[in-house]
């Protein structure tokens, strides 16, 4: 989800602050998608589908930190991001300036190291480098969350298709937001003309495959359709079935743990020693002689 909406971490994450939980890492990785990423990646694990993970657009690391936790022996996560580097064209440069002007690779790495010993493989540059850097058919899961401009997303979907093995899953961020029409256009174009089959949709992400869509959908329906904290609906689009999922109330899966989990909040969060105004008034009322309290009230 792009920055016209507020990132998940409520506060501006300064680069040297140590995140004590994934929730404290600034980014746009929503609860329903955390649930679905977990479902797709755990399913791949259960079916022993092997392959690398790839993320185009990592920002401060929120979804990348989560993805790294699903790697098995011999697999790796690759992330591609411009970070503080140069955008390949003016519209992309404007997008970067408007939305990610404080981002640095250092901030990403510091966040990532808070949760994992090893950094992922980093392609520090535009996603147009991905086809040269990532071996064809080497991945099982690709998250496309970089530029939201049509020409870029179109290329990213082509790169995702090449990177994915037969049973691979691609996730497209912001396929339906008002401020990202380019993603919507590229996503549905890939469905209508590029053989991409939608598995399911959340309010922020599109999950698809170029492989066997029916078996994934049947399993998803069987798992989520049974639950009373989840809603799944099906409809036909361009001759194919698409599931719509609302998993907002499904309990969160186990999240990667920060090495700083036990640290006390920074002074700015924990309180500055100042007493909140309403409590301050009550303490004054309890402690001061009535005549002083009345005088103060008069002054106010
Ligand atoms: C919406 S953010 C990614 C959010 C992240 N996945 C998360 O979970 O918080 C988009 C990222 O894409 C990067 N980006 C934008 N244009 C790019 C391009 N042409 N190539 C590579 N990265 C790009 C930005 O630097 C930014 O970090």
TrEMBL record:
It holds the Pfam family Methyltransf_24. InterPro entries: SAM-dependent_MTases_sf. Keywords: Methyltransferase, Transferase. GO terms for molecular function: methyltransferase activity. GO terms for biological process: methylation. SUPFAM superfamilies: S-adenosyl-L-methionine-dependent methyltransferases. The keyword Iron-sulfur does not apply. Residues 254-281 are annotated as: Disordered. The keyword Transferase applies. Transmembrane segments: none annotated. This is Class I SAM-dependent methyltransferase. It comes from Streptomyces coryli.
């Amino acid at each position: 989800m792009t920055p016209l909406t507020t990132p998940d971490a409520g506060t501006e994450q300064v680069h040297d602050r140590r995140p004590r939980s994934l929730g404290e890492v600034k980014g746009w990785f929503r609860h329903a998608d955390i649930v679905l990423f977990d479902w797709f990646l755990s399913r791949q694990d259960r079916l022993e589908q092997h392959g690398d993970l790839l993320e185009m657009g990592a920002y401060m690391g929120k979804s990348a930190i989560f993805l790294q936790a699903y790697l098995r022996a011999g697999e790796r996560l690759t992330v591609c991001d411009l970070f503080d580097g140069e955008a390949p064209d003016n519209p992309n440069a404007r997008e970067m300036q408007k939305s990610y002007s404080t981002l640095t690779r250092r901030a990403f790495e510091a966040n990532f190291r808070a949760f994992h010993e090893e950094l992922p493989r980093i392609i520090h540059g535009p996603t147009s480098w991905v086809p040269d850097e990532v071996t064809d058919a080497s991945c099982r899961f690709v998250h496309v969350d970089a530029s939201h401009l049509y020409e870029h997303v179109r290329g990213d979907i082509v790169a995702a298709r090449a990177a994915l093995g037969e049973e691979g899953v691609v996730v497209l961020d912001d396929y339906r937001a008002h401020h990202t029409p380019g993603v919507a256009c590229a996503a549905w174009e890939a469905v209508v003309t590029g053989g991409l089959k939608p598995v399911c949709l959340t309010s922020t992400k599109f999950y698809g495959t170029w492989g066997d869509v029916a078996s994934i959908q049947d399993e998803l329906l069987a798992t989520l359709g049974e639950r009373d904290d989840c809603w799944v609906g099906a409809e036909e689009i361009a001759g194919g079935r698409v599931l719509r999922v609302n998993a907002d109330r499904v309990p969160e899966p186990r999240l990667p743990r920060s090495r700083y989990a036990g640290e006390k909040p920074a002074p700015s969060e924990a309180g500055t020693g100042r007493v909140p105004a309403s409590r301050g008034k009550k303490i004054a009322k309890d402690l001061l002689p009535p005549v002083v309290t009345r005088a103060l009230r008069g002054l106010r």
